[in-house]
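Thread: NAX complex, take 2
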Amino acid sequence: AKEPVRVLVTGAAGQIGYALVPMIARGLMLGPDQPVILHMLDIPPAAEALNGVKMELIDAAFPLLKGVVATTDVVEACTGVNIAVMVGGFPRKEGMERKDVMSKNVSIYKAQASALEKHAAANCKVLVVANPANTNALILKEFAPSIPEKNITCLTRLDHNRALGQVSERLNVQVSDVKNVIIWGNHSSSQYPDVNHATVKTPSGEKPVRELVKDDAWLNGEFITTVQQRGAAIIKARKLSSALSAASSACDHIRDWVLGTPEGTWVSMGVYSDGSYNVPAGLIYSFPVTCRNGEWTIVQGLGIDAFSRKKLDATAAELSEEKALAYSCLS
Ligand code: NAX
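Output below.
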């Protein structure tokens, strides 16, 4: 039998946490033969609710779940973890300045970076979900210098999956037959959902999405804004932000990272830029990646047309500005 893997979920008493922990305990993140021990962190005002989640995890009698740590102590939460999914953060409240929200999250991610660096297992893989996700991940990377930068990522898989979903709805094809969309840049409304290299599996082979949709105006317009604004549309409909889709996408992100992407398929991940596609190095930016042996690699050599170039640059500019704002909160 495999040794259990320890998975940290911060903000575990929140809405995404509530959807995510049962998925992990059912093997949707690490596979149906991989036992897990869940570490759940939240803050003292949520301690009682967190304990309620622990009670439900026990009550669900998940065969793969070998233990549950529910705590408000960041050191206890981080100790020995192999995977860290950072969902906890400070949300923007009505009337708050951007800088004030950034400042709260910078201090949270700075502190949690140090705890992970000191107490997590060697080679711990980190996924930041909490917004501003890319910049929180960057702060975490800066303050956990002994964790390899390749191990620190942020979630744009939800945006990627939303793009797959929109193409599948439009063409009335199975979502599992659509692949290789790309989310470039920030997990914000400046992100660029790109279908220029995406394909659909058809009875007569793989066909480019553009060729099948036959409507460039839609692909360059409404498709992009629908994906960019999908989070807001969910809030409007549900009066709550996306949770089940965010949790499911977080499982997809880690599963593909650890177990690998299928041959010929790439996914989108927010990773530390090495300057690929002339994106400034030193940002956490969403790229197309393939994964093998527990490591991601940015897909190289994809053509970028003038329309795409502008969009890649605009979302990079927003991330550079966020980075500057985050750094101004440190001093
Ligand atoms: P909730 O407010 O329901 O839950 C957040 C939880 O984090 C709360 O239980 C809170 O007590 C806890 N928390 C706050 N500070 C903490 C700290 N310092 N340490 C540990 N826990 C802490 O929000 P939820 O809807 O679950 O969303 C969580 C985060 O995900 C938000 O930042 C949200 O903006 C972000 N999202 C990111 C997405 C992505 O694709 N990257 C999509 C979904 C989501 O909007």
